[in-house]
Amino acid sequence: MVSIHVAYTQSINPAGASPVVTEAQVWKGLERKVRYAQEFVGAISSTDVLEERDGGKEVVRIAHFKPGYGGEKGSAKETVRSFEPTKVDFIRENGAVITNTISHGESLTDTDLNMTYTFEYRDIDPAKEVEMRKTYLEGAKSAVDSSIKAIREMVKDGRIK
Questions:
Q1: Tens of pLDDT, residues 134-146
Q2: Apex CA 28: angle with CA 19 and CA 97, to 5°?
Q3: Structure pTM?
Q4: E-strand spans in 70-153?
Q5: CB–CB of 71/79 below 8 Å?
Q6: Of the ranges 12-21, 60-69, 121-130, which is most confident?
Q7: How confident is the model at residue 122 (pLDDT cuts 50, 70, 90)?
Q8: Residue 139 gets which letter from DSSP?
Q9: Chain centroid, CA 21 distance in Å
């Protein structure tokens, strides 16, 4: 068995983006994503929060996937750890780790931001490594793009201030 590691980064506020969102707003979006992942990632149908620890900085949840996603079980139990204002780690029972990171761009301003999702999957059949790497990278791109879009929409409609 092999491990696969992929990452995808996208600018949060590319030229012409409206509204321009701040680091604090992006962080509020990631905090919401921990509890309502289905609002951010199209492959997820619902999220059940089982437990919160350390003032909500650690959440145990089950992410339920739409048909065709999430493997045989169709769900994943995760311990989610938040490190404000920079990253959230989603640690699955099977050892997989998904990290959502907010980083600053060259200007170091509050709105020159990037979103990176890093995926670490373990115990992959070596015969499927190339195929799965491509699938996971495409999934990372989709998840980053949809998360940024959702955060921007939530800023527009006032769910995120």
A1: 999 999 999 999 9
A2: 115
A3: 0.92
A4: 75-83, 87-92, 97-104, 113-124
A5: no
A6: 12-21
A7: confident
A8: H
A9: 17
User: Could you tell me if 82 and 88 are in contact, meaning their C-beta atoms sit under 8 angstroms apart?
Assistant: yes
* Secondary structure class of 124 (helix, strand, coil): strand
State the Cα torsion 10-58-63-145 to the nearest 10°: -10
- Are 137 and 8 contacting, i.e. CB atoms less than 8 angstroms apart? yes
Summarised one tens digit per residue, pLDDT across range 18-34 is: 999 999 999 999 999 99
Non-local (6+) Cβ contacts of 46 within 8 A are 38, 64
CA distance 136 to 122: 12
Give the list of residues 6+ apart from residue 108 with CB closer than 8 angstroms, or none: none
**What is the residue whose two structure tokens read 């491509």?**
134
φ, ψ (nearest 5 deg) of residue 54: 50, 50
Q: For residue 105, give both structure tokens.
A: 């761009």
Q: Torsion angle of alpha carbons 92, 95, 98, 104, nearest 10°?
A: 130
Q: Are 47 and 64 in contact (CB under 8 A)?
A: yes
pLDDT of residue 69: 78
To the nearest whole percent, how much of the chain has pLDDT over 90? 88
CATH for 2-157?
3.30.530.20
